[in-house]
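Fold it.
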Amino acid sequence: MERKPLLGMNYDYFILGAVLGICIILVFSVPANYFPFRKQVFLSCCCGKIDFTTMENLLITSIFMTASCVVAIVFPSILSVLSIIGGLCSVTMCFLIPMIALVKTSSEKWYHWYNLLAIICFSILVVIGYTSVVITIY
């Protein structure tokens, strides 16, 4: 946020307060919004333990906050981050998961010609999709 300071003032304290408020909101809302993801990480890392200590909670929250800061520093424009995440997720949801579901639910073995045809076709699409994400990064 940027604007000229009010008349008679050297600094725009109102904008500074707004920026500080946004930073505080982000710091306190990110762990709350990512609670399901944090719980899954806890369950994966702590061998299915349901109750977590304050130290474990603080550690995982700190890791998430650090990762968020690193992403913000590496990718100052949110558009590049959203395009990368969107590309990875859309390719996975549109091509990779349906291929796995088709092969798993098929009554034939995975090396049957019908399943192999699906694996080859979907694999080509997955490679094209992930390649476009890599090209977007560079």
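The chain has a mean pLDDT of 77.
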